[in-house]
Design goal:
The chain has about 270 residues and is of the alpha/beta class. It has one domain: TIM Barrel (Alpha-Beta Barrel), CATH 3.20.20. The protein contains 10 helices and 7 strands. Strands 1, 2, 3, 4, 5, 6 and 7 form a 7-stranded parallel sheet that branches. Helix 1 runs parallel beside helix 3 and helix 3 runs parallel beside helix 4.
Length: about 270
C-alpha cells in the first residue's frame, strides 16, 4: 500500500469507522467538554480528525469530499495567506459539513508585536467567519520563524473572541493520544519544532503508540491496539494519488526534515 495517497487515507477512515470509533470535529470535542449542545459525555471511542491546510487548499477539498461520502466530519484549519486561503475551497468544505477554523501565525507575521498580532488575529477571524461560524483556532508552527504564535495568549484570551478551543491548550492529552503526519510520517516528532505535546510523547512511545506508516495505524486499529481517544492531524497537501505530485512532496519533505532537524538541534543548544 503506497502511503500518503487519498486511497490510503480512505482505507484509514474505513478502519476507524469499522472499529466503532466516532469521528469528531475539534469543535464538537470542545462543546461536549463544556457541556454544550445537549451532549454530556464524550464517546467511548473517538478520533478527532484535524487538517492543517498550509498550502494547496484544493487537496483539502478532495479529502473533505471523501470524508463527506463516508458520513465523517472533520476540522480544517486555514492560514490567512494566499497559499492556504482560497475562498472557493473554504466554501466547498464548509458546504460539505466540516468545521472551518483559523490556522493562526500572527506573532510570526507581526514580528513578535503583541498588539499588532492580536489586531491581525481579530481581523482574520472576521474574515473566516464569512464562511463558517468559527469557534476554534489552531497555531501554525511556522518553523522558519523565531516566534511561537501561541505566546499571544500570554497577554490576551481567545475566549474573549467567542472561541471555545485551541488544541494545544484545550485537549486533555493525558487522555487523548496525538498523531500527526509532520515530517511525512507518523513518528516525525523530532522534525517538529512546535507541533509537540511536552511530557506525553515518551509515555505514548512506552505504550507502543508510535507508528511510522499509515498501514501500521490501520493494523493497530484492526488489532484493537489503538488508544480509545485520538487526535489525528494531517496536512492535506501531502496526500495525493498523482505520481508526479506524490514524488515531489516526498523529495521536498525529505529536504525539509533535514533543515528542521538542524534547526531543532540549534534551538536546543
Amino acid at each position: 500500500m503506497r502511503d500518503f495517497t487519498l486511497r490510503t487515507y480512505k482505507r484509514l477512515l474505513e478502519s476507524i469507522v469499522g472499529a466503532g470509533y466516532e469521528c469528531l470535529t475539534f469543535e464538537q470535542y470542545c462543546s461536549i467538554r463544556r457541556g454544550q449542545g445537549g451532549r454530556k459525555e464524550l464517546p467511548e471511542r473517538y478520533v478527532m480528525l484535524r487538517h492543517d491546510v498550509d498550502k494547496r487548499p484544493w487537496y483539502s477539498v478532495r479529502m473533505a469530499e471523501i470524508e463527506a461520502q463516508m458520513g465523517v466530519k472533520s476540522s480544517y484549519y486555514f492560514r490567512i495567506g494566499k497559499m492556504s486561503n482560497n475562498p472557493d475551497c473554504i466554501k466547498r468544505i464548509a458546504q460539505l459539513g466540516h468545521e472551518i477554523g483559523y490556522h493562526y501565525e500572527d506573532m510570526s507575521l507581526c514580528h513578535g508585536n503583541y498588539e499588532q498580532a492580536y489586531d491581525h488575529f481579530k481581523e482574520s477571524m472576521e474574515y473566516f467567519r464569512q464562511f463558517y461560524p468559527v469557534q476554534t483556532c489552531c497555531m501554525h508552527g511556522a518553523p522558519m520563524s523565531k516566534y511561537d504564535s501561541r505566546e499571544i495568549w500570554d497577554k490576551y484570551s481567545y475566549r474573549n473572541l467567542g472561541l471555545i478551543g485551541e488544541p494545544y491548550f484545550d485537549v486533555d492529552f493525558s487522555q487523548v493520544v496525538y498523531f500527526t503526519d509532520t515530517g511525512r510520517c507518523w513518528d516525525g516528532y523530532r522534525y517538529s519544532l512546535r507541533d509537540r505535546v511536552p511530557g506525553q510523547q515518551e509515555r505514548w512511545n512506552k505504550n507502543g503508540w508510535s507508528y511510522h506508516r499509515t498501514p501500521e495505524i490501520i493494523m493497530a486499529i484492526e488489532d484493537n491496539r489503538l488508544p480509545k481517544a485520538v487526535m489525528l492531524t494531517t496536512h492535506p497537501q501531502r496526500w495525493t494519488d498523482k505520481w508526479g505530485a506524490w514524488m515531489y512532496e516526498l523529495l521536498a519533505q525529505n529536504i525539509k526534515n533535514v533543515i528542521k532537524d538542524l534547526l531543532s538541534s540549534i534551538r536546543e543548544r
